[in-house]
Amino acid sequence: MNTITLLIHCPDQKGIIASTTNFIQQKGGNIVYIDQHVDREQNIFFMRLEGEFEAENFSLAILHEEFESTIAKDFGMSWKVYPSEVKPKMAIFVSKYDHCLYDILGRYNSGELNVEIPFIISNHPHLGGIAKNFGIPYHHIPMTKDTKPEAEAKQLELLKSHHVDLIVLARYMQIVSGKLIGEFTNKIINIHHSFLPAFPGAKPYHSAFKRGVKIIGATSHYVTEELDAGPIIEQDIARVSHTHSVKDFIAKGRDLEKIVLSRAIKLHTDRKTMVYDNKTVIFS
Amino acid sequence: MNTITLLIHCPDQKGIIASTTNFIQQKGGNIVYIDQHVDREQNIFFMRLEGEFEAENFSLAILHEEFESTIAKDFGMSWKVYPSEVKPKMAIFVSKYDHCLYDILGRYNSGELNVEIPFIISNHPHLGGIAKNFGIPYHHIPMTKDTKPEAEAKQLELLKSHHVDLIVLARYMQIVSGKLIGEFTNKIINIHHSFLPAFPGAKPYHSAFKRGVKIIGATSHYVTEELDAGPIIEQDIARVSHTHSVKDFIAKGRDLEKIVLSRAIKLHTDRKTMVYDNKTVIFS
Amino acid sequence: MNTITLLIHCPDQKGIIASTTNFIQQKGGNIVYIDQHVDREQNIFFMRLEGEFEAENFSLAILHEEFESTIAKDFGMSWKVYPSEVKPKMAIFVSKYDHCLYDILGRYNSGELNVEIPFIISNHPHLGGIAKNFGIPYHHIPMTKDTKPEAEAKQLELLKSHHVDLIVLARYMQIVSGKLIGEFTNKIINIHHSFLPAFPGAKPYHSAFKRGVKIIGATSHYVTEELDAGPIIEQDIARVSHTHSVKDFIAKGRDLEKIVLSRAIKLHTDRKTMVYDNKTVIFS
Amino acid sequence: MNTITLLIHCPDQKGIIASTTNFIQQKGGNIVYIDQHVDREQNIFFMRLEGEFEAENFSLAILHEEFESTIAKDFGMSWKVYPSEVKPKMAIFVSKYDHCLYDILGRYNSGELNVEIPFIISNHPHLGGIAKNFGIPYHHIPMTKDTKPEAEAKQLELLKSHHVDLIVLARYMQIVSGKLIGEFTNKIINIHHSFLPAFPGAKPYHSAFKRGVKIIGATSHYVTEELDAGPIIEQDIARVSHTHSVKDFIAKGRDLEKIVLSRAIKLHTDRKTMVYDNKTVIFS
What we know:
Four copies of one chain form a homotetramer. In chain A, α3 packs parallel to α8. Chain A is 34% helix and 28% strand. Chain A has a seven-stranded mixed beta sheet. The radius of gyration of chain A is 21 Å and the shape is globular. By secondary structure, chain A is of the alpha/beta class.
C-alpha cells in the first residue's frame, strides 16, 4: 500500500471536502484520515487528508498532475502531497547546550521520529562526541562577527547538497540570517526558552525571575526575520516559586525546552502543521 | 441557514467519507466541519460532520430518509442527525453540594451551554433556593431505602413528561437504578471525585490521602450499571502534597469536579461524544 | 487556645530563627508552623510563623510590645502579627461579569474563605441580585469620566467606615486611582486575563488569538500604579488551539480567572503572602 | 563554611523547633533553611533544617554526639545529619530501555544531580555503550529464574563494596527481592509507568488504553515488598485521547517516566524526602 498525506489551503467555499474526497476515491484511494479547519475571520479553509492506494495502480506523478489541473485549480488551492515512505531530511544546529540534542537523538534512535538526520552543524566543537556516539556527521563551522557570511555560505552549501527539508535550532545561540530564513521559509524550527510573547530575546529566565512570575514556559516556533516572533507550534509551562533561583529556572526550563522542541519536530515531520498569517494550524 | 450535525459509526471500509460528503453536497449542503476516527484494533469507523443547508430547500425528514435508505444502509451505519436549532433538554440531579450546580447554572445563564434545563431534582430540599434564583423548577423527591422505587418512578415520570435528553448527576449522592440507566443509556453523566480507575466508590479523597498520592483528580463519565466504571468523557487533576489534609483535598477537588463536569456537559450537548466498547471518542 | 501568625522580613543575618523561636517559647507559645525564605541576591530574610498560646496567660498587646522592643528592634524587622480569630474584611469591586463574583461568594458561603465581606461595590447595577441572594450589601456607585473623583471618594468613605483590609477587583473594569492604591498598598488584588507579562492592558484574549499562542493564562496580582505590573500572586494556564475562536478563549479564560483570583484571595487572607521588590513570597 | 542538613521526626510536642534552633545557634551555626510539617492525625512532627558553620570550630562528630544525647533524646527523635560535601553514591539498575538512563546521565553530566554514580547494573548487555560514553562502569549480571539468587548476591556485593546509598531502578524489568529491599529500606527508587494506584503491575499503558482514560501518568516511589505500593515521591500526567494508540501512550509515557524519575532522584539526593506510614513528606 502507498500512503500519502495532502495538506491543502484555499479560500473557503462550498464543495471543497466533497470534491477532494471524491477525487481520491475515483483514483482508487481510501481516505484513512481527514481533518479540516476554517478560519472564519479570514475565510480560509485548511485540510489534512491521508489516503491509501494499492501499489500496483498508483502513480504519485499522475495524481499530482490531475489534482493540480482539476480540483486544485478550481478552488485556487495551495497544496502539497507527501508520500509517507519519503522521510524528511532534518539538519540540527547546536551550540554548547546538549539537552535538546540528546532528547532529539534519543527519539531518533528509538524510532519515534520519522526523519533522516544527514548532519549536525555547530559553531562550537563541544558536542561532537555526542554526534559520534549516535553515528551522525558533525560539522564544526566556527562563527565570528567577521566570518559570519562565509560560515553561513558553508552551512547553506551543506544544507543544499544534502537536500535538507527542515532545520532544527536545538538551542543554537546564533541569529540566523535573513538569507537562510528566505531559503527555508517555515522550515526552520527554533526553541525559545520563554512563554512567548513574554520575554523574547536574550536571557528570558533572568527576566522571568526579575518579574516574579509563578509559571515559566518554552515555545517552539518557525523562524521568521523578526526575532522570536514567528508562528508558534507548541508551548508548555512549569510552575516556579519564590524558592527558585535563576539557576533553578534554567534547570526546570531545560526539561521544558527539550520536550517542547521535540513535540514541534514530531508535528512538523508528521506533516501536521500548516502556517498562515504568522499562526499555525496543528492537526491532531 | 439550517445546520445539522451527523454522528456516524460503522465497520471501517473503503469509501465512507467520500460517499457521505458526496451525499451532503448533492443535497445542496456545504460541509463546514468533518472529523473522523478509526479504531484500528476493532476496525470501527467514527465520523462527526456538520453541514449547512439553505433553509428554502431543506427538509430534515427527507434527508434522514434518503441517507438511511442509501449510504447508511450500504455501510451498515449506526447514525444520528441533530439539527442545531433544537436544544437538548437536560435535567440536573443534586443532593446537598452546590458547587457543581452553581457552575452549571452560571454557564447556562451566560449562554455557554446550548441546553434547556426543564427542572432540577433533588433528594434534599437544600438547594431549592439556588434553583429559584436561576428561575428553574426544583423537585424535591425524598428518597429512603423504602421509598426508592416510588421515588424513582416519580423521577422517571418527570423525565419522560419533559422529554429529557440528558441527565446530569451534579454530585448526586444516590446510586441510580438499572432501570433509569437502561432508559437513558449513555445519556446520564456523572462526576466522580477521583482519577478513575483509581479510587472508585465512596470517599475517594480519604483513600487518596491515605495512599499518599501527589496528584488528585476528577472524572466525568457516562453512567453504566457497574459503579464508576462507565465510559470516561473527561478527566483533570490537581497537585497535592503532604501539607494538605483530607479537607484540603476536598476543597481542591471541588474546583476540579465542577470544571470537569461542565466540560463533559459541553462536549455532550455539542454532540462531540460517541461511545463504544465502554470508551468514548471525543471530537474536537 | 490563641493562635497567631507572624510575618517578618529583615536583612538576612545570623540568629533570626533561633531568637524568634526562643522568644515564642519563653512567652509560653508553641510553634505549630514555621517557614522561611532568604533572597540571596538582595540578602533579605522572610519568615512566616504560627504559634499557639493558652488563652489564660496570653496578651497580644504585651507580646507585640515585647517583640517590637527586643527581637524586632535588634534585627531591624518589618513585621506583622495576625490573631487568627480576627477575620480580614474584604470588599469586592465588580462591573458586569459575574463569574468571579459567583466563585468568591460560593467559597465564602461554604466556609472556604476566612473573611468577612462587608459590601460589594459596582459601577453598574447588574449584579445587585446576586449580592442580594448571598445577603451582602451592594453599593451601586456609577462612574463616568466626570464623576470619577467623587465616585472614588464615596468608595473610599465606604472602605474606611467599614475598616476594610482587602479590596478584590473581581473583573472590575475601571482603572483604580493612585489615591486608592496609595491607601491600600499591597491590599488590592486584581485578576488580569492573561499570562502576564504577556498581553497587559485591554483585550488580552484578542491579542493572544492574534499572536496564535497555544496556551492562555490568567494572573492575580497586587495592584500598583503601573497597569498590570504589580507583584504576581498566582497564575494558571489553559491549552488552546487553532480551532478556538476569541469567544472560546474568553469562555476558557473565565474558568481560569475565577480560580486564579480565588486562590490569590485564599493565600492573602490566610496571611501567606509577602511582598518585596515588586515580587511575592508565597508560603505553603 | 560547613553546611549540614538535618532531617528529624518525632512525636509532636511543644518546644521542638525552639530547642533545635537554639542548639544550632549555641554551636555557632546559622540556620539557612527550616521547614517543618506536623501530621495532625498521627501526631508526628517532621523537620528539615540546613545550618552553616564556620569550618574552624566545627566537628560533625561532636555535634552528632551532643544533639543525640540532649535534644534528640529528650524529644524521642529519629534523626539524620548529612554534611553537604558528601555526595550520595547512587547505583543505577537498567534493562533495555534507555530513555530514563539518558535523562539521568545527562543531568549528572550537567551537574544538576549532586551524586556519585559508582556503576550501572543491568540484566542485559544492551546499554553498555551508553555507560561507556558517560565513563561509568557497567556490570552485566544476567538473571534467569534459576540464577536469580546468585545474580542478586553479586548485585549486593557490588552495592556493599561501593558503599552505595541509593539504588535507582531506571525501567529495570525485574522484581527486586525482599532481601535487597530489606537492606535498602527507603533507598530504592522505582519509576512505575502509571498513575498509581491505578494500573499497578505489568502493562499499565495497555490497561489504561483499554479503560479509555483521558490522562496517563507516571509515579516514582520507594520500593517496598508489595509491588508498586511503596511511598510515592512524585507523579505527573499527560493528556491522551481516542486518537492515541497504545504505542502513542508508550511514547508519551517515556517523557513522563524520565522526568518523574529524575525529579524523585533530585528530591532524595537533596535530602528533601522523609518516609513514614508508607507516605512521604517532600520538603520544598
